[in-house]
Amino acid sequence: KRFIIEHFQQITDQPLIKTEEDGILRLNNVTHSGDYHIKDKTTGGITSQQTEHQIQAPYIEALGIKVLLDGVTIEPFNFNNCNGIVLNGSQRPNNHQFLAEKSNFNVLNQIRQSFINSQQFTVGIKDFAYQSINFNRNHLNTQNQREMNVEIVKTCDWNTGSVNIENRIGFIDKTTFNGLSEGTLKVWSNGIVTLKDAVSFYRNTATPSDDILNGSQRNIICGGKDGLLLQAQLLEESSSFKEVKVDESIIQSNNRWVLSDSGTCSIFGSLNLEKLLLF
Description:
The protein is mainly beta. The protein contains one helix and 24 strands. The protein has one domain. Helices cover about 5% and strands about 40% of the residues.
């Protein structure tokens, strides 16, 4: 059986699920939803109603030692100034793990927010689809959409990623990042991330499309702070970067759209042999 876990239907700043200390969270074959579900007592059928308010707290806030997601689907809805999953470990080395596989995250692009924000957690992601849903989903507040669009700076630079890995190790394999206009992956201070050949980036096109941003994409941002222990490391192959042709077929792209600070980010793999990373 597949279970549906609803987020709170009232406005709150409390996470839906929280772990602490030695807590271990395991979710198997679960759907996270922001909608309100009603079961008909006669027929047993379940209908859903879209949530009108914005969510101001994450699905998961993990301070414990392990989060295991297997076959988890996250439905899109409107977070307001918060992450979808917060992983916040302690200073103890190698004591916190986030492992997700065979899962599908559907996210609404957020301004300056990562959906997965990981600090001091070892992150493993495999057999994973991470894709955006257009801002125009009908229960989004249109006024909020206009306000967010006003704040977008017309530049090829960006400082966000839908997945943020900081101060720990990340390993990503057999994963697709698709349509994430605010950036896909952020590898930051003391983050060390390995992306295997089966990872694909495509259609992560910046919005809005105007004369400056037209056609530009936002795949990976890598950097850190001055000091040897605060620098970031990225192992990546050039074959991961794709583009979608008019007939919807996917081919390897000649563009990388990787924003790297050469002073605080070290890149390894065939990506390091590229002369130009941003274009």
